[in-house]
Amino acid sequence: MRVRFWGVRGSVPTPGPSTVRYGGNTVCLEVRLADGTLIVLDAGTGLRELGKSIEAEHYTNPIHLFITHAHWDHILGLPFFGPVYKKETRIVMHPTTERGISRTRNPIMFDTAHFPVAFGDLPATIERVENLGIHRIGSASVRHIELNHPGGATGYRIDDADGTSIVYLTDNELSGPGPTPGSMPGSTIEELATFSERATLLVHDAQYTNADMPAKRGWGHSVVDEVLELAKLASVETIALHHHDPDRDDDALDAIGESAAAWVKTNAPSLASVVAAEGLVLDLKQH
Ligand SMILES: [Zn+2]
Ligand SMILES: [Zn+2]
Question: pLDDT tens string for the chain (287 positions)?
């Protein structure tokens, strides 16, 4: 399995000289399965560049799309995804919850109030596989889990036939309150660790540091140290810190990478940590 990060920023795009190394596009990942099937995780502004890459490659097989939730930073790339304007393109949307089914049946981005083109006028063939269970795609199976985020969000685990796996958990607050006052978190840390167990790669929202707390408690994002604890608990091989705060510049992300590496060295020497950056490619290997 090969994973490429096309957008790693949370909340809002952050162009400018202070974010060029890690990138300013909002979240979007390309996953290529062992059999070449393409799965896209989230459709933030990074999706625009992914679209150009797919077109340059003359990729004609179905594009499978999983979206964690409908906050802007996860869907804003959709109208600027070049392949939707080509009639030979086939996109398969995979809602895995009742919430996702309702949002993909009525995509707000193409209601003509938010963008001029209506959903029904898009040239591409867009299908929906409405399945609340396991989605089998190409050489892989995709499972999902409820995350802890205002309005709800869905996490995914892709297990490929070659034995490699990616777990994608964003936006998710690991030790916060539930998504509405008095509610329970979407999933407990133990449930998330079981879901992520022995994954080749865990990609997790790590928007905040301890210095951001308690001011950002309840905002639906995690603190870096909590994410590292989860990665250790789940015995994953590599943790990629993702969904960076829009106010975190390149130097601040370097500092997060250094402190994460120090934490890992002391607490979980077999774990590899990486700060997700636009353009980062990870070739997952079975061990
Ligand atoms: Zn987000
Ligand atoms: Zn969100």
Answer: 999 999 999 999 999 999 999 999 999 999 999 999 999 999 999 999 999 999 999 999 999 999 999 999 999 999 999 999 999 999 999 999 999 999 999 899 999 999 999 999 999 999 999 999 999 999 999 999 999 999 999 999 999 999 999 999 999 999 877 777 777 778 999 999 999 999 999 999 999 999 999 999 999 999 999 999 999 999 999 999 999 999 999 999 999 999 999 999 999 999 999 999 999 999 999 87
DSSP 76: T
Contact status, residue 85 vs residue 122, Cβ threshold 8 Å: yes
d(CA 262, CA 273): 10
C-beta separation of 206 from 242 below 8 A = yes
Point out the ligand nearest to the CA of residue 219.
Answer: 2
Expressed in angstroms and rounded, the spacing between residue 254 Cα and the centre of ligand 2 is 24
Distance 258 CA to ligand 2 centre (A): 26
| Ligand 2 centroid distance, CA of 199 (Å) | 23
pTM of the predicted model as reported, rounded to 2 decimal places: 0.97
> Which ligand number lies closest to the CA of residue 244?
1
Q: Are 71 and 151 in contact (CB under 8 A)?
A: yes
Token pair for residue 111? Answer: 């209601």
**CATH number assigned to the domain covering 2-283:** 3.60.15.10
Q: Which ligand is nearest to the CA of 12?
A: 1
Residue 5 CA to ligand 1 center (angstroms) comes to 15
Half-sphere exposure of 71 (CA within 13 A, CB side): 20
Q: How far is the CA of 88 from the centre of ligand 1 (A)?
A: 31
